[in-house]
Please model this.
Amino acid sequence: MSSMRVTLVEDNAIFCFLFKKFLEDYPSRKIDVEVFSDGKKAWDHFLSIKDAPNLYPDMVFIDINMPFMNGWELVENLVVNSFEFIHTAPIYIVSSSKSSLDIGKLQEYKFIKEYIIKPIDREGVYQILDKYNENLL
Model:
């Protein structure tokens, strides 16, 4: 099985470090991790690869509350600009927000797989990856 490209959009450096470590240590498949510290940096990256679908992520994890461009603004930009990977790559919201407004916003974006409330541990990450890999078989 080829390597998998996972994008994490998250401004908390400690969470990024741990999450990236979980992904790099995943035993079932090699994972290439792209980390962006805010939605604007991720958006700029996605714009730069818009015409290169082979560079699209296989899975995306997005925090909500970030500087410059929050997670919902990033998701909306991906929708408005017709990025096809939002319909093929599982997208997860990973947030410490338990706000019913944030959780309810999922209804606007049916393609988002799940709203995960932090903290998420290694086993939680691996369950998501295992489920994805099982669907490929």
Observations:
- The first strand starts at residue 4 and ends at 9.
- The mean pLDDT is 92.
- Residues 14-136 form a domain with the Rossmann fold fold (CATH 3.40.50.2300).
- The beta strands are 4-9, 31-36, 59-62, 91-95, 112-117.
